[in-house]
Write a structure and sequence with these properties.
- There is one protein chain.
- This protein is mainly beta.
- 8% of the residues lie in helices and 50% in strands.
- It contains three helices and 15 strands.
- Strands 1-2-3-4-5-6-7-8-10-11-12-13-14-15 form a 14-stranded antiparallel barrel.
- Strand 11 and strand 12 form a beta hairpin.
- The longest helix is centred in the first third of the chain and has 14 residues.
- 29% of the residues are buried.
């Protein structure tokens, strides 16, 4: 019970700050959530692609922080364009105390610079909805300092609304070929207000999120028909949102159906977590699991479980021969 109250008080300090900035949820397996990472990262296949992502952060506090994401994207060669749809739900607090939902439509236009270099220009237009369950909030005047029990009553006044709805816009660029990608994106260019009151609180807004990301694939050994090669894939992501900075860097490697890797997340001020990754890829399905090991200087564990599922119908057997004929 005490840990639950502490987590809610920490959450309240973010919702009702004297001065602060909201921050988006982030996935440790950012490369496995392409539509969420950058609207230009859609349509990287000849066939439809579906991505599913789940993150359980700080499991020591039960289900206090859960994030779900799903996306669909497809490239249309005749239009030289890619279209997609993405959904994200972020639930903070047991029982859905503070919920954030994003629904985005995505579009990317592809430019071919050379036979070995393509560039995509992407945009996203979305709907942002947030809700607050006032009945589940715990304020400091509700807590008995001697035993940590809640009295169930508070002098705090309920805000004018407990639901907000906002327009959300963003865009991005990506350059790529069969062995690397390089991209940049901006989100929340409208800086939507997150205030549940009618006051003009300029600080209580969702600040612009800018991201830079890159990845490579290096294959080892000779090419042998129907024989998988060993590969190494380093990946990098840098994010800035308001006063928050984050860098994810590391690599994963694999051969055949198995892959695994190690990454480091850093907040510029201090190292945050080591990220262990393991997964399998069979046919059109790729499943990854990662675990965040906290190395931050805080007094409690700050681990996280994350699962990604990528279904790329462009990886089905025989499609490459069809595309060569086309």
């Amino acid at each position: 019970m005490k840990g639950y109250i502490v987590s809610l008080l920490a959450l309240l300090s973010c919702i009702f700050p004297v001065k602060g900035w909201a921050q988006d949820p982030e996935f440790s397996q950012f490369y496995a959530a392409p539509a969420y990472l950058n609207p230009a990262m859609i349509g990287f296949s000849w066939e439809p692609r579906i991505a599913l992502n789940y993150r359980h952060q700080y499991p020591q506090f039960g289900n206090a922080f859960l994030t779900f994401a799903a996306s669909y994207d497809q490239h249309f060669d005749d239009l030289n364009s890619s279209f997609g749809l993405s959904i994200l739900a972020d639930r903070a607090g047991e029982g859905g105390l503070y919920n954030t939902y994003y629904l985005n439509g995505l579009y990317a236009y592809q430019l071919r610079f050379t036979d070995n270099l393509n560039v995509k220009i992407g945009i996203q237009a979305g709907y942002l909805q947030q809700s607050l369950d006032w009945s589940k909030l715990v304020f400091t005047d509700m807590v008995d300092p001697t035993n940590g029990a809640s009295t169930g009553s508070t002098a705090e006044q309920m805000p004018e609304r407990t639901n907000i709805h906002r327009l959300d816009l963003g865009g991005g660029l990506a350059a790529y070929n069969s062995k690397f990608y390089l991209g940049a994106s901006v989100k929340h260019v409208t800086t939507p207000s997150l205030a549940f009151t009618n006051s003009n609180d300029a600080d209580n807004t969702l600040r612009i999120r800018s991201a830079f990301h890159a990845g490579w694939v290096f294959y080892m050994g000779k090419v042998i028909v129907d024989k998988p090669r060993f590969y190494i894939s380093p990946n990098l992501m840098f994010i800035n949102q308001g006063r928050h900075f984050q860098v994810n860097a590391g690599t994963y490697l694999g051969k055949g159906i198995f892959f695994g890797g190690l990454m480091l997340r850093h907040t510029i001020r201090n190292a945050d977590a080591l990220i262990l990754l393991a997964g399998i890829k069979a046919g059109v399905v790729r499943v990854g699991y990662s675990y965040d090991i906290s190395i931050a200087p805080i007094g409690t564990g700050a681990s996280a479980h994350e699962v990604s599922v990528l279904i790329d119908f462009g990886q089905r057997k025989g499609l490459d021969r069809e595309m060569r004929r086309k």
